[in-house]
Specification:
Belongs to the TonB-dependent receptor family. With about 625 residues, this protein is mainly beta. Helices cover about 5% and strands about 60% of the residues. The protein has a single domain, classed as Maltoporin, Chain A, CATH 2.40.170.20. A hairpin with a 3-residue loop joins strand 20 and strand 21. The longest helix has 9 residues. The chain is globular and about 70 Å long.
Length: about 625
Amino acid sequence: MKISPLALSSLLALPALAQEPTPTPAPDAPENETVIVVTAERNSQPISQTPSTVTVVTREQIEAKKPFDISDIVRLSPGVSLAQTGSLGKGVSIFTRGTNSNHTLVLIDGIRANSPADGRFDFGNILAENIERIEVLRGPQSALYGSDAIGGVINIITRRGTGPLKTGAGLEIGSDSLQKQVFSARGQVGRGGLSFSATRLKSGGQSDNDDYKNLGASLRYDLGIGKTSNLAFIGRFDDAEVGTPGQTNFTIDPNARSKPRESFGNVQFTHDAEKRRDKVTFGIADRRLGFSDALNPGTTPATGTTTDSTNKSRVLSLDAQSAFTLGKNTLTVGGESRRERASVDSVASFGGFPFNSQFNQGTRTNALFVQDEFRSGRFTLAPGVRYERNSQFGNNTSGRFAASFDVDAKSKIKASYGTAFKAPSFNDLYFPGFGTPTLQPEKSRGYEIGYGREIAGSGRVEITAFRNRIRNLIAGVAAPTAADPFRFIAANINRAKTQGVEIGLDLPLARGVRAVVNQTFLSTDAAPRLLRRPGFNTTADLIARRQKISADLGFIAQGRRFDNDFQDPAFGGTGRGAGVFGGYTRFDLTLGYDVRPGLEIYGRLQNLFGRDYEEAAGFRAPGRNFVIGLRTAAF
């Protein structure tokens, strides 16, 4: 382990920076407090009332794990599995109920965060500071959210500032020359509430050219207008640089560098009346991804490769909705207008042959949606429909019907059926030599049935069976030409079926001690086979807080999965090629101690037993690594 003298001295000096003594913040969602969700039906309601299948990763769980980025938070939900291509900062893909990694719509405070270039969201580049909770809504959700929501919707929700203003600072040092500094402020500022964090993170990585650095910031300011209205300004920014050494079966690439920069912002106006709630949101999502790879030592332009590319995208959106309470009905109506643009400027050379790619394209999308949530006695019914028109592929209508029945005061049966779609990405449509402008949207239909029961006071157990069928899957197909015998193009050729069972358990074991266990069993049927979908996925966390001591013991297990390291020995490769790769288990441990009110020291040990494993074939996951840290007040 490498630790700089400056980082060490800063760590030892940090207690002097603490503000006046303040009580250690309690979890934002105590055990006896009703959990409110906003994603399931696009309205605030207790999670116990929604007929949808949704999991909330709470502030308490985030505090217990103290993760670097949001990937380790999203894992704490049934129905999802993640695959990271290496160490800290490398790309993280999510597979919700076995669907593709671009079939999950990701929102940041209700604003679309998926890249329009490839339709994906990289969970490895968004730092975990200033997050209140993450809501994971599963199943086809295009009836409310439109394109991309085939597998589900994930909503990352920023913290609010309340109470007197407090500031804080934090510092972490650890394995692989890791350093992290955080400044935070939270509380009343002027007439509104502020929640702010700024983070600087650096790591040397596991090997040459495996380093990572990220400068991130997050802000939310809520301004009350009268007694019933609120105006919120929300922003999140991450500017990173990542070394990309490549797969372990190849010689380390010493020059390949990726520079992702992402910013998300929105302005939200909400008005709450006795029987009506209005919400208007203007949002922007801006991305820039630079990639460069110079000639490796010992090569020449005639024998080596070079790449210099810049990918840019921007999404502007205006969303308005109103929810009316009409007797036993809650009627939600709304509309969305969205403008998306993406561009690529790439200059590459392979063995002296130039391969240059450029495009700059945009689309417009307008949509209307309506849902009626009807409650009568023990029954809840929620039919919904959305009409969406896209300037590239035309019209699409999606529907969903959800229902629930309260067996008794503590038990509920849920069921739903829905259709969903995924619009082709800009790369699928326009990338030179690969894109096909005539592509049609991928479409799906899916259903689920589940049972949930409250147990042991504030605990809960849920089990849900699901099935999805997807058609018009977009994949690359061989289309050789005389000039390019290895040419592939995007085409609507595939069908897929995913089905399985999810089990979620949240169980209080003793005062201040909880166990949270999630289990997913998954089966997929597609040709060619779907990559990186484990047959089972388990996460378990034992969370404890007693007086000054806090602890989180985490466990992850993934079953065998089909993957491809693209190093088939039959073609001279040094790997396995396509095949079934083994699963893995991993234990993590986080411990914290309140030195005094407002000052905490903690340590985190990841991959406790030093298991050698890969989540993505050919990309070695980090071995045993640790972090120690101090933080004061406003966290």
